[in-house]
Amino acid sequence: MLQRKLEHFLQEQRPVWVYLKDQQCWIEDALVVEIVGDMVTLRHEDDDEDQRSSWELSVRLESIGAVSTRLSSVCRSSGPDDIVTTGDCPEAERLGSP
């Protein structure tokens, strides 16, 4: 099931958060670049103040403990009237709809 989920994220090119069991850390905001057998290649980019780094990391499928993705995000500094919704969201499910 984990492999199917990763293949789905590979097709969609959505950013994912991957927990590595053996290193006990999260790889945040990464893209699944390739899946070959039991090897998964992730691309992660870092933006420092003056430079940008891009890493590719190959991990075994058995090393992955969890995979998640962000459904949406809201800026904490914005007010309730500043929330942006997508046009493809059903009217009944939009924030602030009656």
Characterise the protein shown here:
The chain has a five-stranded antiparallel beta sheet with strand order 4-3-2-1-5. The termini are far apart. Helix content is 11%, strand content 41%. It contains one helix and five strands; from the N terminus they run αβββββ. With 98 residues, the chain is mainly beta.
Q: Quick summary of this structure?
A:
The protein has 98 residues and is mainly beta.
Average pLDDT number? 82
The general outline is globular
Distance between the termini: 38 Å
How much beta, percentage-wise?
35-45%
Identify low-pLDDT runs: none
Structural key phrases:
mainly beta
Helix-strand layout with pairing:
Blueprint: H1 2-12, E1 16-20, E2 25-36, E3 39-47, E4 52-60, E5 64-68
Antiparallel strand pairs: 1-2, 1-5, 2-3, 3-4
